[in-house]
Design a protein that fits this description.
The chain is α/β, with parallel strands linked by helices. The protein is globular.
Length: 243
Amino acid sequence: MKEFNMTGFIDSIETFGLVDGPGIRSVLFFSGCALRCKFCHNPEMWKKTGKEYSVDDVLKLILKSKPYFKRNNGGVTFSGGEPLLQVDFLIGLSRLLKQENIHIALDTAGVGIGRYEEILNLVDLVLFDVKYAEKNGYKKLTGNEIFESEKFIDCLNQSSKPVWIRQVIVPGLMDNEDYLKQLAVYLKKIKNIEKIEFLPFHHLGFSKYDALGISNPFVDVQEMDKLDCENLYQRFLEIRDQL
């Protein structure tokens, strides 16, 4: 079929990934993103650059790891960047992976260009990246309005796909009682949540800003202590259970 010849731009492909979904996974980092998150650790993926692949080329690479997927309940994760911006490529590749009975996880902020129902019909798991749980804070942190991600959430709820939530915790922004309450209320509108992860803000991507000549708005923000992040998560669970 014609769409199987579609090409897409991939920044990098990680084999044997262990943190982007269940089991051992091949993680495809799509380039291009509509957001400009101030805490982003992959600014090199903002623009649609990287290597151009056909869906057949990517499938051949993925199939080399298929024996490991089957033994460890793994599969493929689409990450980025934002996979939802390369719709034809994403759908064409997903259809081929479904023919191979390979589990697909979509790591997304929900800010794409539509056809969400079609995409969600093909994936098995959604890793949803919460940028900020309140619209004004979302705009300040990402440079975009929250409305597109809410459109995606509506489609996600209708799809009944399992959801893993990811929330980066930036010191001074998300590590307080008020935000935890906002987040707990916000997550109530997302169905089928199986897991919630708090990810501590870190400096691992800072060198990329220097290399790209991009101003880093959070250069003076300290890393989030992992233990403090874990304690904050436990407090979040208490707040959520009280609602």
